[in-house]
Each structure stands twice: as structure tokens, then as C-alpha cells.
Write a structure and sequence with these properties.
The protein has 313 residues and is an alpha/beta fold. It is built from 12 helices and 12 strands. The structure holds adenosine-5'-triphosphate and nickel (II) ion (NI). Adenosine-5'-triphosphate (ATP) binds next to strand 1, strand 2 and helix 1. GO terms for molecular function: ABC-type nickel transporter activity; ATP binding; ATP hydrolysis activity.
């Protein structure tokens, strides 16, 4: 069964006299126990999806579509009902973990405060967090709790936040750019961390990342975003080792291990998107049809692709 189902999700931001189309007609399901990756270049709409489904976007965001969590429509919940889900049944590890911790509070107090805010006994919560910290590769967690956030490395901070999120036993974890700003060693640690969260705790995850190595190691399936829409969705190994969409091919070739061949050109303006395929200007296969007609998502070798010429690839 799908734990999360997103149907026709669109997000527009009104900014002065313009409208920015951040996310357009996104569909996907995340099955119980599955890790779905969201990849795509900066500005493609990944974080906005994570924030939209928890209704955490600012007031100038116009959101449409349906988000079902265990069959329950999150967009029709009252704020009090949503608060019971947010941070507890669905946890979000934000894009900037440093910003998620208060710099003047020792780690122990941060953890206790998070439990208090959610109406959970802080001593109980602390015990649970410490147990998780031991399991999730943090040495000497007691000592770590007596330090301030800035005394921890980026990787340690991330583990601390992961433990805090996991202690609420969320059914779904959303992690936004968990390896951003980490050094190579900490990045490897993050792969280990998320693999453990997935395998030992069987968590269902939505993993938003630029880090294709992390995505390949941890994700079961991957959705590739371009200019606010999904252009390819398939098993992780297929998307990253044998991509079908010309954009995904470019993204994979731009990886250091594949020669760092950059994808030329820029993604289109989100204020006036092209009529045809959003990728046509940068695509080496494009022709007149791509210029005129916006491609629909189609089945392709068991996955999904938004391209007029998938049969040629
Ligand atoms: N509050 C906002 N007001 C106006 N536009 C916004 C707002 N938040 C996001 N956007 C726009 O929405 C689009 C998608 O942004 P988003 O942050 O989801 O990208 P992303 O894929 O997460 O990028 P990155 O990889 O850099 O984190 C961008 O064009 C961005 O400028
Ligand atoms: Ni983002």
C-alpha cells in the first residue's frame, strides 16, 4: 500500500505582478518501507514539494492538488489535526540542519525542548533519543548532549537531528539535502546513516538530494525533476545507471565520476514557461514537436518518462 500519494500537485508563488510556477502537476506514490529520491538541479522544485505536503509554505504560495497520507487528505485537515501529524508521524529534516538547532542551547536542552513542544515527557523522550544515538553510530552520546551545536561537526549535527526526528517514530521521514555542505568523510557517514534508518528501522523516506551517490545507495526509486515537473521516474539503478530522459542523461554525465560534463544552457523562466517540452532548448534530440507540444508522462520500460522520443533512446 502507498503510505504517501501525491496527485496533481502544483505550487505557484505570487510575487509582485508575476506568478512563479514552482511545481507543476506532480504525481507520485511512496510505498510503505520505500525510499523515494527526488533529484534535479537547483530550483527544480524539490524542496517546495517537501514543504507543500506539510503545508509549510509561506502565504504567497498557491497550492493545488491532493496529498494523501495513509489515505487521509492532508490538505483538508484542520490546523490542529495537521499539528498531530507534522513532526510526529511525518518528520522533516530541513535543508539546513545548522539552522534547525538553537546555537545558545546545549544539545540536551534542544532535545528536551523538542519533546516538550510536542507534549511528550522530556525525560522519556531523552531516553529514547539516547538509545537511538547509540544505535545510529554516535559515540558517547551523553557527552555529546553536554556540548553546544557549534561544537559538533556537520555530520554529527545531522545525526543528532536524525535521532531527534526518529524518536517520534515517524511513519514518513522527509530529508532535504542531507549531505549538503558535508565533507567527503561525513558524506560517507550519511550514506551509512540513511542505510541504517532504512534497513534497521524500515522507515519510509522521501529523500531530496543533489548527491547522486547517496541516491543510488539509499533510494529504491527516483523521480527526476526539471523546471517544476517530474520528467522521469523509475528504479534508482535504472535512472542513474541507464537513464532514459535526455535531461537525466545530462545530469548523470555531469557527475564527477562520469567526467563532469556540464549540461549546457539554463532551465526556462518559471514566470513564462515554454509551450512545448520545458527541456527542448537544451535537448540534443529535440525537433518541431518538442517545440510545439508539451509531452505527457508515459509508461516506458516499466517506469515513467515525459519525452516525445523515448522510443529512440
Ligand atoms: N517563497 C518563495 N517565493 C517565490 N518563489 C519561490 C519561493 N520558494 C521557492 N521559490 C521558487 O520555486 C522554485 C523551486 O524552488 P525549490 O527551493 O523547491 O528548488 P530546489 O529544487 O529545492 O532547489 P535546491 O536544489 O537549490 O534546493 C524556484 O524557482 C524558487 O525560486
Ligand atoms: Ni531545495
Amino acid at each position: 500500500m502507498s503510505l504517501l500519494e501525491i496527485k496533481d500537485l502544483s505550487v505557484e508563488f505570487s510575487a509582485r505582478e508575476n506568478t512563479v510556477k514552482a511545481v507543476s502537476h506532480v504525481f507520485f506514490k511512496v510505498r510503505e518501507g520505500e525510499t523515494l529520491g527526488l533529484i534535479g538541479e537547483s530550483g527544480s522544485g524539490k524542496s517546495v514539494i517537501g514543504l507543500a505536503l506539510l503545508r509549510l509554505l509561506p502565504a504567497n504560495a498557491n497550492v493545488s492538488g491532493t496529498v494523501l497520507f495513509q489515505g487521509q487528505d492532508l490538505f483538508s485537515l484542520r490546523p490542529s489535526e495537521l499539528r498531530k501529524i507534522r513532526g510526529k508521524r511525518i518528520s522533516l529534516m530541513p535543508q539546513n540542519p545548522a539552522g534547525a538547532l538553537n546555537p545558545v542551547l546545549k544539545n540536551r536542552l534542544q532535545i528536551e525542548e523538542v519533546f516538550e513542544e510536542r507534549g511528550i515527557d522530556k525525560k522519556e523522550g531523552m531516553k529514547k533519543s539516547l538509545r537511538l544515538m547509540k544505535k545510529l553510530l554516535l559515540r558517547d552520546p551523553e557527552k555529546l548532549c553536554d556540548l553546544y551545536p557549534h561544537q559538533l561537526s556537520g555530520g554529527m549535527r545531522q545525526r543528532l537531528i536524525a535521532c531527534m526526528s526518529l524518536s517520534f517514530e515517524p511513519e514518513l521521514m522527509i530529508a532535504d539535502e542531507p549531505t549538503k555542505g558535508l565533507d567527503p568523510e561525513a558524506k560517507e557517514g550519511a550514506v551509512e546513516l540513511f542505510t541504517k534508518i532504512k534497513n534497521d528501522y524500515g522507515k519510509t523516506m522521501l529523500l531530496i538530494t543533489h548527491d547522486l551517490d547517496l541516491a543510488l545507495e539509499v533510494c529504491d526509486r527516483i523521480a527526476v525533476m526539471y523546471a517544476g515537473e517530474i520528467v522521469e521516474l523509475d528504479k534508482a539503478s535504472k535512472v542513474l545507471n541507464a537513464p532514459s530522459h535526455p535531461y537525466t542523461k545530462g545530469l548523470v554525465r555531469a557527475q564527477p565520476r562520469n567526467g563532469l560534463v556540464p549540461l549546457s544552457g539554463q532551465s526556462p523562466s518559471r514566470i513564462s514557461l515554454p509551450e512545448g517540452c520545458f527541456f527542448h532548448e537544451r535537448c540534443r534530440y529535440s525537433n518541431i514537436e518538442c517545440f510545439r507540444k508539451h509531452p505527457e508522462m508515459k509508461n516506458h520500460n516499466g517506469g515513467w518518462i515525459r519525452c516525445h522520443f523515448q522510443s529512440l533512446q
